[in-house]
Structure formats: C-alpha cells, structure tokens
Specification:
Length: 320
C-alpha cells in the first residue's frame, strides 16, 4: 500500500501487548495474553478493544466476523459452526480456534439465541474460544454475557481516568514528534481531554493536521478542530429540509445510530458552547429530548428512525 494513502489509524495501530495503551487493571486481567476463556471487551469506540483482540488472536486460527455487517442467524448456523467443526493444526499440533465477533452488540436476537448454544458446545469441548467487542454492553443479552469474562474499557475511577490520560498524552506527543509536528503540552492536554477515551479519534485528527501541512499546533488550533459528527451538528443547527436529513443520516450513519446519539449528549453540547453560544439556553430542553429518544431506542424495530426523529426534534428546538 502507498504510505501516502495509508490511514494513520491503521499505520500506527498497536501490534503487540507492549505497544497498546491499557489501564493497569485491564493489563492485569489480560496477563500474558493467552486466551484461556471467552472474553468480551466493552466500552467507548476507539478505546482499543478491537486492537487488543487482534493482538491476542494474531498467532491463532481465527474467524473474524464484523457483526455490523453480518447480523443474522445464518452467520452462526453456517459460518461459525463450519469453522468450529473443522480440524485446526498449527506446527503439527491440533490447536484451539478463536471466533472474533467485532461489534457484536449489533447481532440480531435470533443470532444471539443461536450463538448461546454454539458458545456452550464448542467452548466446553475445548475446540474454540470466543472474543467479542461491543460499545454498548446493555445490548448484549445477559445469557451471552454470562458465557464471557466481560472487561470494561471505560475508566472505572478518577484515578484510572488520570492514569490513561497521562498515557494518551505521552503517546500523542510521541506521534507528533515522529511526524515532526510541534505541539505545546497545554495543547496536547486539551487535545486528549476533548477526545478521551478515543485514541482512534486522536490519531485520525492528528492525520488531519499532518495532511494539511500544519507543523505547529497551539491550544487555539485544538479548539477549532472538527468534531466527529460535525455534519450532523451542522444540519441540526442550520438545516430545514427533511429530505436532506434523511439523505445524510441514512447514507452515512445508519450503522452508527448509537454512536451519534451518544455524541449528541456529549460533544454536541460543547459544539453549541463554542459555535452557537446564543443557543446555550436550549441545552436543558435538548438533553431532555435526547434522553427520551435514547430511552425509546430499543423499543423501535429500525433504530435509524429514532435518530431521524431526534434530529427533526432538535432542529425544531434550536430554531424556536
């Protein structure tokens, strides 16, 4: 691959346990990296769940499943069962297999029901181990959770958040140095603070600086840095065409409904403060509506309808 075309999120993805940033708590749970039981990593997007799973499975026969794309019961009945049923030999010895279910909180109810028996069967026979990642643990049925060692990637205390923040700052300042970009310590702290705990977002935005030829970054540069879902925020604040809403949300975010909804309760408020200070008084009403739509999210058949409805409602609120 042409290095000029390679995304930094791939180029600088950690390749070993030594490279990846983890809290001391998670590193202790992972130990030497041997997969001795089924593991489910859950927590914020970009926090290292998939990277860690890839590191743990890189020397084992692994079936990778992107559960955002393959969500139905046929995935379990054919692909996973076929993989588990075949004999795997490594260096002349029969070896355990791994099924890596990335973003498994997107699986259908039928797939989860079929998966429960499959995990039970092949794990007990010692044939396979399962590794899953998800952003929203509440979307994974309890009987599935019970068959995994669930590891939380959210900081569980202020001390752990501080520990990770320090590690993030060191990593980003090191990356900037590699790219010959000068960044002040205050700017690095603000950069990490605004994007924590998503290292992927930090690396992606660093590439944006690099691609623009920026060689020196101040704290002011960080304050005007783009938000992950800025196009959604802009259409809420300035849009009036319902079909334009539909085209944007269905075209770009149909598989990221939960991520967008979560950002509306966090980054969107900060976005208002910076770019629309006259609308600050709308924040209580905005948050009440977001909470309402998030609560109703699992009661609708098509989650994208919830996102469309929420965006329409927020447009009405900010333009009243």
């Amino acid at each position: 691959m042409n290095n000029q075309l390679q995304l930094f999120t791939g180029k600088y993805r950690p390749k070993s346990l030594e490279e990846i940033i983890l809290s001391d708590r998670i590193r202790k749970e992972i130990g030497d990296g041997q997969i001795k039981q089924n593991i489910l990593f859950y927590g914020p997007q970009g926090s290292g769940k998939t990277s860690l799973a890839k590191i743990l499975t890189k020397n084992l026969p692994t079936l990778y499943v992107n559960a955002s794309d393959e969500t139905g019961v046929d995935l379990v009945r054919t692909k996973i069962v076929d993989f588990c049923s075949s004999i795997s030999v490594l260096d002349g010895k029969e070896t355990i297999k791994v099924i890596f279910l990335d973003e498994c909180d997107n699986l259908s109810d039928a797939a989860f029901k079929a998966l429960r028996a499959t995990i039970e069967k092949y794990s007990e026979l010692g044939i396979a181990r399962f590794i899953g990642t998800c952003n929203f643990i509440n979307k994974v049925p309890q009987p599935i959770q019970d068959r995994f060692c669930c590891i939380n990637f959210n900081p569980i205390s202020k001390e752990e958040e501080k520990e990770l923040t320090v590690k993030y700052i060191k990593r980003i300042m090191g990356l900037m140095k590699t790219l010959e970009i000068t960044i002040s310590k205050d700017a690095a702290i603000e950069f990490v603070k605004r994007n924590f705990p998503s290292m992927r977002s930090l690396v992606s935005k660093t590439q944006s600086f690099y691609d623009k030829g920026i060689k020196e970054i101040s704290i002011e540069d960080i304050k005007v840095l783009n938000y992950n879902f800025e196009d959604v925020y802009k259409i809420i604040m300035t849009g009036s065409d319902p079909y334009a809403n539909y085209v944007l949300l269905m075209g770009q975010y149909v598989n990221k409904v939960d991520d967008v909804m979560q950002s509306l309760g966090q980054d969107f408020v900060e976005y208002l403060r910076e770019f629309y200070p006259a609308k600050i008084g709308k924040i209580p009403q905005i948050l009440i509506e977001i909470a309402h739509y998030q609560a109703q999210r699992n009661l609708v058949i098509d989650s994208s309808i919830s996102l469309l409805g929420l965006v329409f409602k927020l447009q009405t609120i900010v333009n009243q």
